[in-house]
Design brief:
globular, seven-stranded mixed β-sheet, 15 strands, alpha+beta
Length: 364
């Protein structure tokens, strides 16, 4: 630890509750729901446990990170830090100290492979990670781009930013009897069925078990940070959207569609309703929480979008008029030399297969 941080206290925490840490994440630039203890509890449903490393001075958190760990055989594990580490006011000295503690933790706790995806807008962290022994990652386990709609303009302007065909579909959905309502515990069974139907129909969509999405809704709705929207027609549930509310954003974290009633356009009305609700409740952004990077890059550069094959979701998200945002690239740390060699061989083959890489490395 540097001399400037000699008075700081390193605190390690693995418990399910850490109010001081969560308060720091909410208050810090770049703070993300993926760094909260509630998200760690959701990931526990699919085999991950969490450890938090935080630096404090007089009881105030200065920086740190939440690390997700998946245990392997014989006391080994792999680790993932999504949208971290965080530091108050982006303090680079604090960031250095956190990374020093993180790599030391990886060595002492036999973490064979560690992935770090820095916070949004912290491109400067790349050089710092390289200095601490990380290398640019060849494995894409989480979204590297997203689409965000700025909700501050009037609704008329938001609609005007969409293609005329999408505005028509929203109106047609209403005329054809589609309604969108708030969901609750009684809808969790239908939500699970819609996720399963989507996974069967949509190429490249690897769904988690139903209990994962149910835990996500229960955990965040308990503190008023989740909104479940259900699209119906004639009493039949057609689609759902699960929004996680954090900071300035309503994040589209999960969704599903039966595949039925496509001419009634339930998904178009579903997301427009989500945008309208988020705007009315003071959120600045409606975030689709991920888009295929090839499509995102083409959209950002003004090129003709790649033609959709079986999966039309990226094109659907772009139709709502949002801005494409790229995340800071991920970096990897492997304490053992033999693992570095293995990673160099495996990464190029897995890098383009996001569903597999996500399963292995903790898709967000």
């Amino acid at each position: 630890m540097s001399e400037g941080l000699a008075r700081d206290h390193l605190r390690a925490s693995e418990g399910p509750s850490d109010p001081a840490w969560d308060a720091f994440v909410v208050a810090t630039a770049g703070g993300d729901v993926l760094q909260t203890t509630r998200w760690a509890e959701v990931k526990r449903e699919v085999g991950w446990r969490a450890a938090r490393l935080s630096f404090e001075r007089d009881g105030i958190v200065l920086g740190g990170c939440q690390l997700l760990l998946r245990d392997l055989a014989v006391g080994r594990s792999i680790g993932y830090v999504p949208r971290g580490p965080l530091a108050s006011q982006g303090d680079r000295t604090v960031t250095d100290a956190v990374l020093e503690a993180l790599t030391d933790f990886a060595r002492r706790h036999h973490v064979l492979y560690l992935k770090v995806q820095p916070p949004v807008n912290r491109e400067d962290m790349g050089a710092t990670l390289l200095r601490h022994g990380f290398v640019a990652s060849g494995l894409e386990a989480a979204p590297t781009a997203t689409v965000r709609i700025d909700l501050r303009p009037p609704e008329e302007e938001l609609l005007a930013a969409m293609p005329a065909s999408l505005r028509l579909h929203i109106r047609q959905a209403r005329r054809r009897g589609v309604t969108v309502r708030s969901g609750g515990p009684a809808d969790l069974g239908a939500m699970a069925e819609l996720i399963a139907a989507t996974a069967r129909r949509q190429a490249g969509f690897a769904a988690y078990p139903a209990r994962y999405y149910e835990h996500m809704w229960r955990s965040f709705s308990a503190i008023g940070q989740a909104r479940l929207l259900i699209a119906e027609r004639g009493g039949a549930v057609l689609a759902f959207a699960l929004l996680i509310l954090f900071g300035e954003s309503a994040l589209f974290k999960a969704g599903g569609w039966s595949g039925l009633e496509s001419r009634a356009h339930p998904n178009e009305l579903l997301h427009w309703t989500g945008m309208s609700w988020a705007r009315e409740h003071g959120f600045r952004y409606y975030d689709f929480d991920g888009i295929h990077p090839t499509v995102a890059r083409a959209a950002q550069e003004g090129r003709v979008l790649p033609q959709p094959a079986a999966n039309r979701v990226p094109h659907f998200k772009l139709r709502f008029g949002g801005e494409v945002t790229f995340f800071v690239p991920a970096y990897d740390f492997t304490p053992q030399r033999v693992m570095r060699w293995a990673l160099r061989g495996v990464a190029p083959r897995l890098g383009g297969r996001r569903a597999i890489a996500g399963r292995l490395l903790g898709r967000s």
